[in-house]
């Protein structure tokens, strides 16, 4: 009679575990939840080794964020939104076009900017007639 070998889950490499921890962070999991998830998913990493993987994943996310250019990302987002706006207008989807325009306004913070920037007062030139006259 042959005895079947019990198959154990394969222990993740440090790189595989780091990628999984990054995925967990992206999904909004906390460190404690990640530790629970690693145990439940049988990653085969625990204790100090898992702490090191979490630290490595955290540093990788920080490095990725530091390498991003805000101007580039805003430019890409704006280009995508403008493309969606054009497609909505071409398809005569007014509600969609309006929703996309609201996103563009939000991205560019147009509403905030418009409320903060005072409209410069125009000095009347000699010979200008008043636009409104007050009746007496």
Notable characteristics:
136 residues; mainly alpha; 2 domains; 64% helix; elongated
Describe the structure.
The protein is mostly helical. It has two domains: 14-67; 70-116. It contains six helices and no strands. The protein has helices at 14-26, 31-40, 47-67, 70-90, 94-108, 110-116. α1 (14-26) packs across α3 and α4 (70-90) packs antiparallel against α5. The protein is elongated.
The helix/strand order is HHHHHH
Q: What gap, in angstroms, lies between the N and C termini?
A: 115 Å
Q: Kindly provide the radius of gyration, computed on alpha-carbon positions and rounded to a whole number of angstroms.
A: 29 Å
Number of domains as seen in the coordinates: 2
Number-wise, the strands total 0
- Secondary structure class reads mainly alpha
Chain-wise SSE layout:
Elements: H1 14-26, H2 31-40, H3 47-67, H4 70-90, H5 94-108, H6 110-116
Helix pairs in contact: 1-3, 4-5
Short overview:
By secondary structure, the chain is mainly alpha-helical. The protein contains six helices and no strands. It is elongated and about 85 Å long.
């Amino acid at each position: 009679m042959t005895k079947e070998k019990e198959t154990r889950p394969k222990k993740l490499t440090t790189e595989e575990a780091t990628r999984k921890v990054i995925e967990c962070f992206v999904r909004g999991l906390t460190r404690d939840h990640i530790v629970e998830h690693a145990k439940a998913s049988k990653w085969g990493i625990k204790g100090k080794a898992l702490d090191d993987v979490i630290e490595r994943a955290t540093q990788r996310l920080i490095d990725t964020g530091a390498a991003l250019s805000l101007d580039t990302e805003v430019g890409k987002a704006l280009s995508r939104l403008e493309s969606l706006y054009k497609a909505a207008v071409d398809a005569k989807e007014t509600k969609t076009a309006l929703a996309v325009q609201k996103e563009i306004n939000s991205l560019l913070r147009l509403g905030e900017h418009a409320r903060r920037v005072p409209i410069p007062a125009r000095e009347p030139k000699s010979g200008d007639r008043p636009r409104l006259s007050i009746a007496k």
